[in-house]
Write the structure tokens for this entry.
Amino acid sequence: MSTSWKGKAWGWLAAILAIAVVIGLLSGCAWGRGEGTAATSLDEIGEKVGQAADLKEMKKGDMKKLQKLYNIDPDAVEGFILYTSNSNVRADEWAVIQLKDPQQAENVKASIGQRIAAQKNKFKDYRPNEFFLVENHVLKTKGSFVFFAVSQEAEQMEKAFDDAF
């Protein structure tokens, strides 16, 4: 009778060990997939969004352009990616702004809101197609990142931004 008990104990031990190994493997596969993980960088986001958009007719902006367009305090900005249209008669632009303090996101969104209002006034009677793009912009935040897009591809760009997290 004691031999039978030892066989069952080894069977149970083997089953528990197998379950532990499977759980360990499955949890290892999901490691780092949480929303807004620290592994998400501005460069990764910019690469994903840039792949979702046609940048041929756009130019990269610098801090001076960021301040001019959105009136954002440079001390609040950790980093950014900005693209604007090559032409003044086109409304296309997109930005990903990483803030030092996520608490500043609402202020930045308000500043970008002023830009949106100015662009609407500019294009309203002059370029209805561009006005439509401005009207259907995307402006959102995730953690310390603010995303803004005015483009025919704004939905794809938004999805790429979301997928980066």
